[in-house]
Q: What sequence folds into this?
């Protein structure tokens, strides 16, 4: 009888211990990611141990997100919160405060060399440029995930954040991250090959908001955008007139729509210049699961495919 009791006590302790661990089937680590691109990366690294909730979902615009009380409640019950940083989530501080979130905040872009954007001149600068004496406010360009080399920095930050929040899962997070980093390397090699095939004078595109500065910087494209690095302010008539003139003078071959912005402005620009519409680029959000860009790497495959199709001839 005594033996039996001891046995069942040990058994229930084992069950109890199993269920209270962060990674058991019924009690996964609860992660929240601010937007869909980051949400996918956290899923890839977290694997089965992590339940990921994404605040700004597929095709959503995280620049202008307005968190509801339900979102604050959701965040309050999470263990770890992944954000992009670099000013992308202007609503984040308010949300963190109102939710009373006490978990770990991981800034995925930590360690990235930021590009900045002169608000006055509308051109990108790298952070170590010598044009800081021009006056005009320099704002960081938050879209760092559009370079796959930066994506690898995101993955390392995600991995380290998950290990801190759930040390028992370390081996799994390291294994998942290593596999994912290799896949990102392979994708980056493919991107470089695809862009190298384009005639140099055709590696120039127009998008509505300036989300592809890191892509352009990393892989040798020129991207011109009437709207700047946030979708919050609309392009002025003067900006649009300037871009129309530039497209005509420089014979820029294609304009691209984005999944997160209104297409009317680009339709107008294409109409007035005769530049062709090269399709939709996924900039700040993934597509839905059954769409053409349901993952971070899928987004690159789709975008580079669209660029190649529009610019190769
Ligand atoms: Zn954006």
A:
């Amino acid at each position: 009888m005594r033996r039996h009791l001891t046995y069942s006590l040990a058994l229930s302790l084992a069950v109890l211990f199993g269920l209270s661990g962060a990674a058991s089937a019924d009690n996964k680590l609860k992660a929240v990611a601010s937007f869909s691109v980051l949400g996918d990366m956290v899923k890839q690294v977290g694997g089965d141990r992590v339940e990921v909730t994404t605040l700004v979902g597929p095709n959503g615009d995280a620049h202008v997100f307005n968190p509801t009380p339900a979102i604050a409640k959701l965040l309050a019950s999470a263990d770890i919160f992944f954000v992009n940083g670099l000013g992308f989530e202007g609503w984040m501080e308010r949300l963190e405060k109102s939710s009373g979130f006490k978990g770990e905040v991981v800034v995925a872009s930590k360690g990235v060399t930021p590009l900045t954007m002169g608000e006055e001149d509308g051109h990108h600068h790298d952070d170590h440029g010598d044009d800081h004496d021009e006056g005009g406010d320099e704002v960081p360009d938050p879209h760092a995930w559009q370079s796959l080399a930066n994506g690898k920095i995101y993955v390392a930050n995600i991995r380290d954040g998950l290990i801190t929040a759930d040390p028992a899962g370390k081996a799994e997070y390291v294994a998942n991250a290593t596999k994912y980093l290799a896949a990102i390397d392979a994708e980056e090699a493919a991107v470089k090959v695809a862009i190298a095939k384009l005639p140099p004078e055709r590696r120039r595109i127009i998008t509505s908001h300036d989300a592809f500065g890191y892509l352009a910087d990393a892989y040798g494209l020129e991207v011109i955008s009437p709207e700047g690095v946030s979708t919050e302010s609309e392009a002025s008539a003067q900006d649009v007139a300037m871009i129309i003139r530039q497209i005509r003078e420089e014979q820029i071959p294609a304009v691209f729509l984005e999944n997160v912005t209104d297409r009317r402005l680009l339709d107008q620009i294409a109409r007035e210049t005769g530049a062709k519409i090269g399709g939709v680029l996924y900039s700040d959000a993934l597509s839905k699961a059954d769409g053409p860009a349901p993952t971070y790497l899928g987004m690159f495959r789709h975008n580079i495919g669209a660029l190649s199709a529009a610019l190769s001839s």
The mean pLDDT is 88. The domain at 2-186 is CATH 3.40.50.1980 (Rossmann fold). DSSP finds ten helices and eleven strands in the chain.
